[in-house]
Amino acid sequence: MAQTLVMEKFRKFQKSGVKHGDVLDVYKKWASTYDKDLDLIKHSSAHAGASALADELTRLQKPKNVRILDVAAGTGFCGLELKKRGFTNIDALDACQEMLNVAQSKDVYKSLICEDVGDKPLQIENDTYDALICVEGFIDGHIKCDALPHLLKVVKPGGTIVLTVREEFLHITAEFRKLDPLIVRLREEGMWEFIIRYITPNYFGEKDGVVYVYKRK
Ligand SMILES: C[S@@+](CC[C@H](N)C(=O)[O-])C[C@H]1O[C@@H](n2cnc3c(N)ncnc32)[C@H](O)[C@@H]1O
């Protein structure tokens, strides 16, 4: 029952047509109890994203102190999964200060950046990070596709980018039907290079997720 209520809460604001400001209001009010509620539902998104990034960085024989930016970090689920895998140099970025305050209490992140990612360059300098991860950031009312080129720019050439998205969004939402074509276009424009893309089960409840791993050019 509790699980159904939490899923229903997500469904109510993670839907087409929702306004970005309303989404941030939900997180602002939810931040202090978000982790407790999330523990009630089946979700493996942070685990899937962190595993993909850790596997790729290990494959590349990168040290554990590579500089990582966790975009839409929320309360830090993904950062915590990266910490469990030994990574020590992670910054969190999120548009909601209240979510970042919870993330800060977990002693995972070096810096916390409160920034609303949109269709303009980030406040972060280009070529700053060795890796960028964004788990559950590309959702209606959250981060839109047009932010992607700006996110890539803060990653150093040769750096790793991991994105995870709920698979159904790629088909049922107008915004995220644009994502795969955009990903291909950015590859054709020489902004990044394909490493791997795969489906991961039980990503959010019973729903599948898609994990994308790319290399910045
Ligand atoms: C589903 S939650 C957190 C997901 C988190 N990565 C995890 O693994 O638990 C989505 C987060 O995206 C943030 N967010 C939404 N739109 C954003 C934007 N345009 N720029 C930055 N953060 C945004 C919200 O504040 C919220 O904390």
UniProtKB/TrEMBL annotation:
Give the range the annotation lists for the signal sequence.
none
Gene3D superfamilies membership: Vaccinia Virus protein VP39
Domain (Methyltransferase) spans 68-159
Instruction: Write the protein's name.
Output: WBSCR27 protein
Provenance organism: Branchiostoma lanceolatum (Common lancelet)
Question: What does the organism's lineage look like at the top?
Answer: Eukaryota, Metazoa, Chordata, Cephalochordata, Leptocardii
